[in-house]
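Collaboration report, partner site 2.

Our partner group contributed sequences for two proteins of shared interest, and the home lab folded both. The records are reproduced in the order in which they were received, starting with the first partner submission.
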Amino acid sequence: MALGLVVLFLILLPWIVDKYSLQLIIYTMTYIMLALGFSLCWKGRLIRVDLAAYWAIGAYATGMLMTKAGWSYWPTILVGGLLAAIIAWGVGSLTIPRGGLVFFTFSMLVGLLIQQTLAASKSFGGWAGIESMPPPAIGSFVFKGKTEYYFLGLFLLGVNFVTYYLLYNSKIGRGWTAIGSGVGFAKSLGINVVRYRLSAVVLSSFFCAVSGSYLASYQMYIIPDSFGFHQSMMIQMFSLVGGLNNFLAGPVVGAAVMTFIPEYLKVTAEIEPILTAVVIILVIIFMPLGILGVVGKVWRSSLFVRNR
């Protein structure tokens, strides 16, 4: 019953909110896809700051294939995702066996390298990026308005959620949980920590690229500045604010809060990095479990008091 009401609400949402709010929801859905990827890696106790780079790979794969090669939008999603997964597999295979710190360090270098390569190459449009991308189409139906893009994003986000949910409740998900409880503990259970961590990195990179492809199709332009180190830090923020131990719901809450509040407070681009740093510090000090962690703690306390 509750799930049916949620689905009905999501279907009716474009006709409930105004166009500006709908645009924020569209961006929020892209951020949720990214934060889900970070939360997956955190479940395996890996911290990475290169997710914006894989976001860029998906965006640029779609942009290049549509504008230069004349491809339809739909196969570019898969191409971008596979390209990101292959690069992530190569980087992860080299760094994950050497430990989380090595992986973290290389993730910074890879993120910077990919962004600078896209910006420096005239083939990718340089710092001006790629413009005038054609909209997606299914036959004669062309995605032009925000409502169409909302439902496209909702579909892609649904694929993300179903995939992560099924994996979290499978053997591989139990392996990630064991690693999160402790690498030594996971090894004592016979779990191949490197393999499980590598699968998390590859999967999260794939879906980050899918999010990038979606963003590129919606904006119809892409620039390298959209995929820098600050954006990777924001992805971490979404998971942190929502709750790092809530691997599905946390990214939703965190992305929504960190998208809507700055917009409605009219925070400028110059102030946003400062606000981000302040929020990170405050969350770490006062809400280390995130919003959902605090809500859960209060809820459990109220139940304990009620049952005394």
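Second partner submission, folded after the first:
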Amino acid sequence: MRALSCRAAEPKSHVAAHDLSNRNAARGEPMRPSRRQADELRAISLERGVVKYAEGSCFVKFGDTHVLVTATLEDRLPPWLKGQARGWITAEYGMLPRATLERTRREAAAGKQSGRTVEIQRLIGRSLRTVVDLEALGERQITIDCDVIQADGGTRTAAITGGWVALHDCLAWMKARDIIRALPLREHVAAISCGICSGTAVLDLDYAEDSGADTDANFVLTGSGGIVEIQTTAEKTPFTETQLLTLLALARKGISKLIDLQKMAVM
């Protein structure tokens, strides 16, 4: 089991925080609720091997957002994939009732998944499939289960980033038992949120920023810089192409750091 973390710089005193506020004001940038710089990630950690029975697992933290991710090998496929000599990666996503400020009713009790849940788990699954050689996996399925323990914005991006680590360990488990000959992972994939808050482009939004952002976005990128998915929404006023490119540049910077953490975690 190995835990890797990337800590955001925190002011050491009231004076330091005051100086930081002054520097931001001098640049015309509003102070973020978390007192981070515009291009600064929250404290990130990736802890492997946290679930005894899972073939792969990762407890990922993006600040106060905590997600437990497991990867399970199953010798079955969706009916429509049978006989095609390739495997499948799928995902399921859910939030514990008190992952949020107020209790959220379990979806099992409601009898159906919300549209948000279905959309997020499909995003996680297709993001991870893009970096896997499905033919080399054989006629097997790996299910990535993402359970949000605590939510403070960015749960889907944390799930994708930690999901890659859990998937890697599941595939390594298979290789160690000669189920597959080589790791079918082509490269890394990670995700991060960005947004425009009070006119400033910022990286890795927490809930306080996400809930009041002018524009919010989620970026899924590979280790080589390929774009897997971009989800961008103007919540208040339309954003410009220049602003979109600014957000993309911020996302590339943040994801580069996340992938470095992934690399160190699986060493």
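Feedback sent to the partner group on the second submission included the following. Confidence is low (pLDDT under 50) at residues 6-26. Helices lie at 14-26, 107-110, 115-129, 134-137, 155-176, 207-210, 241-265.
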